[in-house]
Amino acid sequence: MSSVSGVAGNRGQVNYSAAKAGIIGATKALAIELAKRKITVNCVAPGSFPDPDQMSAEAYQTRQDDAKGRVPLGRVGKLKEPGYLCVFLASPAASYITGQTWAVDGGISIKHP
User: Fold this and answer.
1) Active site includes 16?
2) Does the domain formed by 4-110 have CATH 3.40.225.10?
3) Which of 49, 58, 66, 69 has the CA that lies 20 to 30 A from 105?
4) Identified catalytic residue from 16, 60, 84, 96
């Protein structure tokens, strides 16, 4: 697991963005090394996924409202959405996919500032 910050960077979080970008690089290197053993290695880079059970309803609504103007799909992610991608990547349907980073971010990583 990386982060959209590892793909697109994030102001004020140089250390976090660099660490997550390192995971993306490690994914590519491991994919090359393990391909001869028929092992695939991929990376998931989630965007904003606040947990409504870990915050007040008002705080969660504030995050939702902010996403409407910032995230192309107009909402924060649901916690299960990166999991769906992980299930796909672990399935035979993804047996020819390796070394890739998949952003699950509502389109924020492709949005121009």
Assistant:
1) yes
2) no
3) 58
4) 16
